[in-house]
Each structure stands twice: as C-alpha cells, then as structure tokens.
Amino acid sequence: MPAKNPDLHGNAPDQAPVVLLLIDVINDLEFEGGDTLLGHALPMAERLAALKRRLRAASVPAVYVNDNFGRWRSDFRTLLAHCQRDGVRGKPVVERLLPEDDDYFVLKPKHSGFFSTTLDLLLEYLRADTLILTGLTADNCVLFTASDAYLRDFHLVVPPDCVASMEPAYTRQALDHMRRVLKADLTPSTALELSRAA
Fold first, then answer.
1. What would the pLDDT profile of 174-190 be if each residue is shown by its tens digit?
2. Rounded CA gap, 76 and 79, in Å?
3. Mapped to the 3 state alphabet, what secondary structure does the chain carry?
4. What mean pLDDT do residues 96-113 have?
5. Does residue 4 lie in a domain region?
6. For the chain, how many structural domains are there in total?
7. What CATH number did the domain enclosing 179 receive?
C-alpha cells in the first residue's frame, strides 16, 4: 500500500534502501567511566566520519539517533550546542561527527532507537530495508536498537570499527551476539561495498 505522502513533504529522498544510523554520538560523556569510553570513542569517531563521507557520496542518508539524556525540554540542536562547549569531555568526538544540514535526527528516551520515537515512520518513508548501525555503545544502545531493527525484519550491518563500548571485551561480546542472533553483517567500514547503496 503506497504512503499517502511518499515524499515526506519533499524533505526525504524518494527511496533510500540503505540508511546509516549514528547512535548516541552526540554525547557529552560526562558520566562515570566517560573518560575511559572517550579513549575508545575517539578512534571510532575518526573511522565513522570517513564512512559517513563515503556513504554520503553514495546517496545514503544519515540519521542521528540520540538519547535525550533526561533533558525533556531539550532538542537535538540544544544537545549539540551543549556538547560543543569548551571543557565538555565528549567535544572531540562530537566535532568529528557534526551533522550536515540534510541529515535526520531522532531523539530517544531509552536505549533503543525505536522505542517511543519516530524512527519507524522515517524509515518507512525512506523505504529502507538495510540499516548500518554505528556509534555508542555497542553493548547497550547499539545492541538494543539492533534487536528492535531485527524484529522489524531489517537487514543489519554493524561495522566493528564504527562502534565502541567502555571496554573492548564488551564490544566483542555485543558484536558476536549481533552476528549470531541478529544475523548482522560485521564487515569493517573500509571493506563495505557501497555500489548497491546508491
């Protein structure tokens, strides 16, 4: 059944079978263990920024799926401005992954990007069937989002070099679970074949 408004008021491409999700990368990291996570998140952010550029060139849209961190009167722009202030621990990660004007944003109240958000509707309008999941943290919000995406019959790609957790062992365990249980493709970002995404 076709959508009543298939072009989403002209703001979405007619069709985007592949979509990049950047999960909780706009993050101040101002919490216990944030310093440790920063050490793993910085190299991840470099690789994710390079992947995002390649995907953008292949016309793959990016969706920032971000926690509201309990700031119920906030929005994505306010969160972004907060994370770019001097002295904020997560600023170096955020600066490497700044959104473009035509990127999409979904604020989530809990771990999964699908729980009580508009992500389902956006992906339906984009006609997506494959999601590339990236960001923080592999063993928490990336894993919960991947699980909900799998339940919705999306094909999952989780580049191991574009996710991070508090400890590398946590990342390895989460990736193994996503590969084994959620049938995720764990091809590294530099080896992803983008020709089908265009």
1. 999 999 999 999 999 99
2. 5
3. CCCCCCCHHHCCCCCCCEEEEEECCCCCCCCCCHHHHHHHHHHHHHHHHHHHHHHHHCCCCEEEEEECCCCCCCCHHHHHHHHCCCCCCCHHHHHHCCCCCCCEEEEECCCCCCCCCCHHHHHHHHCCCEEEEEEECCCCHHHHHHHHHHHCCCEEECCHHHEECCCHHHHHHHHHHHHHCCCCECCCHHHCCCHHHC
4. 93
5. no
6. 1
7. 3.40.50.850
